[in-house]
Amino acid sequence: MVGIAQNLCGVALVGSGSATPSQSLSNEELGHRVETSDSWIKARTGIGSRCVIGPDETLVQLSHRAGLSALSMAGWDPESIDLILLATSSPDDLFGSAPKIQALLAAKNAVAFDLTAACSGFLFALVTAAQFLRNGSFRRVLVIGADQLSSWVNWDDRTTCVLFGDGAGAVAMEAVDASQDDLLGYLLRSDGSRGDSLQLPQIRDHLPLVSGTSHQRGGFDPIQMNGQEVYKFAVREVPALLEKLLNETQISADSIDWLLLHQANQRILDAVAERFSIPSQKVLSNLGSYGNTSAATIPLMLDQAVKDGRVSSGDLIATSGFGAGLSWGAALIRWKGPT
Ligand code: UT7
User: Fold this and answer.
1) What is the DSSP string of 166-234?
2) Does 40 contact ligand 1 (Cβ within 6 A)?
3) How far is it, in rounded angstroms, from Cα 7 to Cα 4?
4) What whole-number distance in Å separates Cα of residue 292 and Cα of residue 327?
5) pLDDT tens-digit series, residues 79-131
6) Cα 159 to averaged position of ligand 1 atoms, centre (Å)
7) CA 134 to CA 336: how far, in whole Å?
8) CA atoms of 269 and 287, how far apart (whole Å)
């Protein structure tokens, strides 16, 4: 690979976009399918409704819409994109969906591939993109976080089906001079030894092949989650990692303009905010309307807050993704895009 921007080792976030499915499902409606109630779901999670991809939509289409919107905000020609990174655990195609988004965007000069890290996927993809930008390999990257977990929940299991929704969000990232670097710091973590507490495992179904051999049929069981374990993991590890990051970057919690966490549960957002004495007006949440959209939550929330005028150019955002793997990460970002 030929380096094209050797002197530009900073990273700027210059555009955002998002897209959600047209079908919305309220807590009341879900109560017709499983034994639950609007009051239980709202009190335990903050979720009021979620969007679910219907027969006329696909994750690639949502991702394309989110990507187009980010390109439009950034003012980029699709042909100027060098890399499209799709963070997803639920691609339309297990071989990868990013190239299909590349084709729809007509980003013919971009290489495109998927990256999987469940609900931490967008943050991991953003940091991965930053490496390509900082080392001079690429100048413009489109990072998309998108998931369709509605395909992978058991809609008769009230402990999981009430939590998840579908969506896509995108961020346009550009190589800039080091003095204008907007990725002020990041930390990423994995702990596979605790992975059993949240899984979307392959089915264990072996079928006979020939001469006493067998093969495993492809397919996945629905999402399995030990909610309490994952909750405890999130409220312990996310503040610990954010604190380490603030210490390492010598940035004080007071200077954070926005806390932008993975949207899994309002109680988790509140607990992390309380730990850093961040007032609730600085905590971004769209759980009420979208639930947990996995890799999409952070860019979806960011785009909504940029477009409704809450996040302005120059704002400091503390963000953290966490979930299956187990995986978690944190980053401090300055939003540069037009608002
Ligand atoms: O994106 C990946 C990251 N994921 C997360 O961060 C999820 C973390 N976990 C959580 O957010 C919470 O643990 C949940 C929202 C999943 C569950 O809340 P909880 O306060 O931990 O509830 P619980 O699992 O302790 O269940 C309490 C009770 C149980 O009944 P009993 O045993 O006390 O009789 C459940 O059966 O609530 C019951 N329950 C429900 N009731 C009505 C569980 N789900 C429901 C439901 N409606 N949907």
Assistant:
1) EEEEEEEEEEE-GGG--EEEEEEEE-GGGGGGEE-PBP--EEE-STT-EEEPP-BPPPEE-HHHHHHHH
2) yes
3) 9
4) 16
5) 999 999 999 999 999 999 999 999 999 999 999 999 999 999 999 999 999 99
6) 6
7) 17
8) 10
Say which residues have a Cβ less than 8 Å from residue 229's Cβ, sequence separation at least 6.
194, 197
Strand partners, 174: 12, 140
Q: Is the CB of 298 under 6 A from ligand 1?
A: no
Is the distance from the beta carbon of residue 159 to the nearest atom of ligand 1 less than 6 Å? yes
Q: If one looks up domain 183-194+223-334 in CATH, what number appears?
A: 3.40.47.10
Cβ count near 79 (within 10 Å): 11
Numbered ranges of CATH 3.40.47.10 in the chain? 10-180, 183-194+223-334
Q: What is the mean pLDDT of residues 130-153?
A: 97
pLDDT over threshold 60, residue 8? yes
Is pTM, for the whole model, over 0.85? yes
Mutate to test the pocket of ligand 1, among 37, 39, 44, 262 (most ligand atoms within 8 A of CB): 44
Please provide the size of the chain in residues. Answer: 339
Neighbour tally for 339: CB within 10 Å: 17
What confidence tens digit (pLDDT) does each residue in 254-308 have?
999 999 999 999 999 999 999 999 999 999 999 999 999 999 999 999 999 999 9
CB 106 within 8 A of CB 112: no
CATH 3.40.50.720 fits domain 10-180: no
Cis bond before residue 326 (omega within 30° of 0): yes
* Active-site position among 27, 265, 286, 292: 292
Terminal C-alpha separation, the chain? 34
